[in-house]
Amino acid sequence: MENGQILDTLVNTLSQPLSALPPVATALGMFIMNSVFNFFVSSGSGQAAIMMPIQTPLADMIGIFRQVSVLAFQFGDGFSNVLYPTSGPLMASLAVAGVSWIKWAKWFMPLFLIWSAIACILLTIAVLINLGPF
């Protein structure tokens, strides 16, 4: 994106509507965006290579600290890796255990929703206490 000279345009375009929102809503949006994006790119390092060049300047432009942006990334990447069928380690583990993904998803979904609610609470606290810079 940087070589194609679209990164700055993309970040500026995203920051315009998000700047009208409260910082807490933006942090929660980053968490949700990373959770959804993790379905398509399940590799943590691959997702970081794609998302962090967008999220870091976006956080700067919107007025939240970079640590909150990284926290949203970590929550979005980490929690959904244990749910999405595009996660290779999850599917390998389920195959070895002899558990179908449908059965796993039905069992795990309540825990995933609890973790997501806790992540939203922690992100809200992080924004309110101005977590960072370290």
TrEMBL record:
A Pfam family that the UniProt record links to this protein: DcuC
UniProt main location, coarse: membrane
Highest taxon of source: Bacteria
Membrane topology category: Multi-pass membrane protein
UniProt GO cellular component terms: plasma membrane
Transmembrane segments: 20-41, 108-131
Keyword Transmembrane helix belongs to the record: yes
Keyword flag Transmembrane helix: yes
Keyword tags: Cell membrane, Membrane, Transmembrane, Transmembrane helix
Localization terms from the record: Cell membrane
UniProt xrefs under InterPro entries: C4_dicarb_anaerob_car-like, DASS-Related_Transporters
Protein name, UniProt field: Ion transporter superfamily protein YfcC
Protein species of origin: Jeotgalicoccus coquinae
